[in-house]
Amino acid sequence: MSIFKSFKLFYPKMRSNRWYWLFYLFCRVSLAYAFIVAGMVKIVGERFANGLSELHPMGAYLTALHDTGYYYTFIGIAQVIAAILLLIPRTVLWGALVYLPIIINIWILSYAVRFEGSIVTSPLMTLANLFILVWHYDRLQYLLPIKKLKPLPFFEKPEHYSWRFPFAFTLIVVAISASTIVFAVYGHEVMPRNSLRDCQQQFTGTLNEEAGYSFCDCIHQEGHSLNQCLELYNSQKKSN
Known about the structure:
The protein is an all-alpha fold and 240 residues long. The protein folds into two domains: 16-144 and 167-186, no CATH class; 196-239, no CATH class. The chain has helices at residues 3-15, 18-43, 57-66, 70-87, 92-113, 121-135, 137-140, 167-186, 196-201, 209-220, 226-239.
C-alpha cells in the first residue's frame, strides 16, 4: 500500500478523533500566542530579546533588524495577522500558510547562530504548523502541485468523535520533542550561550578550557562572527 493510500485511510480517522482535535487546538492556540507576543514587541518598536548583548551573533542580527524601521514593524504585523488567522476557524489554513515561511526562517536562523532562545521552540513550532496544514489537507490539496492523485473529499464534521487514545502518535510527538531537546543540548560541541559567564561554564574544568574561554571572549567581548570564533576555537584546540 502506497503512503498516500495509507494517508487516505488515516485522515478521516484522525479528523474524527477527539484527542487529535485537542492537539490540533493546542497547536493553534500556542502558535498564535507566540506570534502575538513576538509580533507586538516589533509593532511597538522594541528590540526582540532586548537583554541579549549586541555582540552576540543573534543580538547583532536583531539589532540590525530593529534598525530597518518599518520593515521590522511589517514583520511584527505579519506575525500578528498570522496569529489572528490561526484563531479564527474559517481562516486557520490561511493563517498556517502565512505562519510557515516565517517560522521556518526563525528555525534556520536559530540553528545558524546557535541561539538558545529558540533552538528548541522554533523546530517544534514548525512541526506544529505542519500538523495544522495536514489537518486541513482536504482543502490544502487543491493548492499543491499534485495532479495525478485523486483528491480527498471535503471532510464533514462527525456527529460523534472517537475518544480512542492515539498511543503511537503520542509516542512520536514525545520522541520528536525529546530528540529536539537532546540535539539542542548535545548537538553542538560549542555554544555561544546568552552571556559570557554561561558560555564559559560549558568549558570550565574541561581539557579545552583555554580554547573555550578564548571562544567566549571572541563572541561576547570582541563581537566577532560565530564562524570566526569557531575557527579560533578549533585552531587553539588542535594546538593544545
